[in-house]
Design a protein that fits this description.
By secondary structure, this protein is an alpha/beta fold. The protein contains nine helices and eight strands. Helix 1 crosses helix 2 and helix 8 packs across helix 9. Bound molecules: zinc ion.
Length: about 325
């Protein structure tokens, strides 16, 4: 081997060593560093996973508690609804003792010690005094009689335009009675000519009463009643119109008889007005507040006294809750 050859192989060795260092450096820098980083990250991910697991467990536990609370609340509300003021703790422990948690609450409840106040019972017989055709010269007298007995009635009035009529309309309202409508004109042929003419008369009266008293009346009595034989149109057409106006009509199931042309005696009026009340739940009595019906005013105190003396019977004004008495349906 010549000196030249030795120099060449020494230089090559150095180059190879440099290359080796370079490769080792690459290995350490390019592979080991990411590997270490990966390990560190993996440890952190594991740790976070454990934290997450623990938190999930806690959340689950909390939601279980909330559900249990909700169930207790539901039981409390159910017990309350059944007993009125309820004793949910007792009812719950009772059920648990009996071991029938899913059984209905009824029958296992401990009733409250304080007895519930009796609900106010509706009297068996409800009587409604109704006066048609007013106001008249007798309206004041009728109102005074009603006041004497602390009784409220219903007045189906006409569209009378005198000052005294307007005052009477206001008095009816102010003294707590029901102001009903009985047509503006009371002229059968005009009112029942068509639905349009009926509507015109109706609106005129409702507006007039509102203007005078501030009350928008919502009850109506057909002149002649819904079963009258005067109307050429089917009365159901007018009834439908009233229904559209959110107004209810009332007929009667007791007639005093004071609508007849001859003046009835006080005795007959009392007899007519009090017959059959004890057999019915709702009695609507037809009377008239009219200048030629003097005996109606005379009979009124006796009629009221006789009705008030009946057992389980009350006199009421017609309201939106009153069961309607109607001749046609
Ligand atoms: Zn009438």
């Amino acid at each position: 081997m010549s000196d030249g050859d030795v120099q060449v192989s020494s230089a090559r060795r150095k180059r190879v060593q440099r290359l080796k260092k370079y490769i080792v450096g690459m290995l350490v820098g390019g592979i080991m560093t990411p590997l270490v980083l990966c390990i560190v990250l993996w440890i952190q991910v594991r740790h976070l996973g454990q934290v997450l697991e623990r938190l999930t467990g806690e959340v689950q536990e909390l939601s279980d508690q909330v559900r249990a609370q909700q169930e207790r609340m539901d039981e409390f509300v159910a017990a309350e609804a059944i007993t009125g003021q309820g004793n949910p703790v007792s009812s719950e422990s009772n059920r648990e003792l009996a071991g029938h948690a899913s059984e209905p609450l009824t029958g296992e409840l401990v009733l409250p010690e304080e007895p519930e106040p009796e609900p106010e019972e509706t009297p068996a017989h409800r009587v409604y005094l109704t006066f048609d055709d007013g106001p008249s010269i007798y309206t004041d007298d009728i109102l005074d009689i009603l006041d004497t007995y602390d009784v409220k009635a219903t007045f189906f009035v006409l569209g009378k335009e005198t000052d005294s009529a307007r005052e009477a309309m206001k008095d009816i309202v102010d003294r707590g009675h029901t102001l009903g409508m009985h047509s503006y004109s009371h002229k059968y042929t005009e009112i029942y000519e068509s639905v349009e003419s009926f509507a015109e008369d109706f609106t005129k009266l409702q507006d007039y009463l509102y203007e005078v008293t501030g009350v928008k009346s919502s009850v109506y009595r057909f002149p002649g009643g819904s079963s009258n034989t005067v109307s050429s149109l089917d009365m159901r057409e007018f009834a439908e119109y009233l229904d559209e106006q959110d107004v209810r009509f009332f007929d009667w199931n007791i007639s005093s008889g004071d609508g007849s042309s001859r003046l009835l005696s006080v005795e007959d009026l009392v007899k007519n007005c009090t017959a059959g009340i004890e057999k019915r739940g709702t009695s609507v009595i037809l009377l008239h507040d009219s200048a030629n019906k003097s005996t109606t005013v005379e009979a009124l105190p006796i009629i009221i006294e006789n009705i008030l003396a009946m057992e389980d019977t009350v006199i009421l004004p017609i309201t939106d809750e009153t069961e309607p008495v109607q001749h046609i349906h």
